[in-house]
Amino acid sequence: xxxxxxxxxxxxxxxxxxxxxxxxxxxxxxxxxxxxxxxxxxxxxxxxxxxxxxxxxxxxxxxxxxxxxxxxxxxxxxxxxxxxxxxxxxxxxxxxxxxxxxxxxxxxxxxxxxxxxxxxxxxxxxxxxxxxxxxxxxxxxxxxxxxxxxxxxxxxxxxxxxxxxxxxxxxxxxxxxxxxxxxxxxxxxxxxxxxxxxxxxxxxxxxxxxxxxxxxxxxxxxxxxxxxxxxxxxxxxxxxxxxxxxxxxxxxxxxxxxxxxxxxxxxxxxxxxxxxxxxxxxxxxxxxxxxxxxxxxxxxxxxxxxxxxxxxxxxxxxxxxxxxxxxxxxxxxxxxxxxxxxxxxxxxxxxxxxxxxxxxxxxxxxxxxxxxxxxxxxxxxxxxxxxxxxxxxxxxxxxxxxxxxxxxxxxxxxxxxxxxxxxxxxxxxxxxxxxxxxxxxxx
Length: 443
Fold this sequence. Notes:
Phosphatase 2c, domain 1; single chain; alpha+beta; 2 domains; disordered N terminus
């Protein structure tokens, strides 16, 4: 390879067949031993550390040691595909921060052409071709090579010097390229590992949140005087904004709750947990259902961010005579199947969703009597809006069909039949919404 003192030296990208990295040997046994030792130390460092910052710091310090440069920088592409200085070091081992000046013209040329550059004796070169930064920094030698992983460029490795007694050579550039090839893989692997570790940490956090949330929901069903109840909630993500509960009150009434927070994920789950805590605390008092929901709405309206809301159905069944009174806050109309007449009713009365208007006053509706064999079905819109591959929703009519077909079975079996029917409807496609079902059967 020829090396001109008046122009930049460009080397092609590494070719595993033709490149011979032994070109960095000088013939001086002492110097060559030093170079090989530094290179092996560098390769060991970058391939044993899993910390990206540690890998980069080792790379920069060894780059300075190999080349005798005064400064070394690593620039990496960020998430917006823009080069950013990841770290800069000097020959004294000091961190120079990310505002350090360097030759942008050299870096940009390497980024554009994808080939290593070595410039020496810059004082004798054309100012226009070098760029103003070289002149301003009084740099005499500059060397920069791309960091590549296969055909993908992930960044640049750069060194420079103002020393008059140190000129980079073609052997320096070849050695620098050999180092960069290993560094690129190590840095990329470290970043991938860090992404994996971060992802695992998030997944563990979500799994813990999911377990906590599940512990807040009733497990399966319950059997009380005149009622057999079963409920289930299946999130479409790790956590859910859906909520159901059974709440025994001190005066022989049983509260049945189903709620649905807008959106999915952690935010919805937190709002759901807050609503549950509020509802639980207020039902421990002597307050009536309408007052309870009115107060829950007032509390949530203070804290809920704009655009977030929660729909809720809260009903109380008097266990002595199986009569239902209820408050519906923008939630799907509960369905009642009448066994004697083989007919369906919907509890359509109610008010707006929670968290929309802070001073809204909710009213109590009912009473509604439940007779032997009747079914009270509470649900979130995840069942009626579940779509098949053609975009057709499961719909209320299919719910009616399943309830009628399994009306004489246990509450648990009816809920299980509904889940099976929904899954059969959507096929292999993933559900787009949480699914919560609660069925109370008068016995």
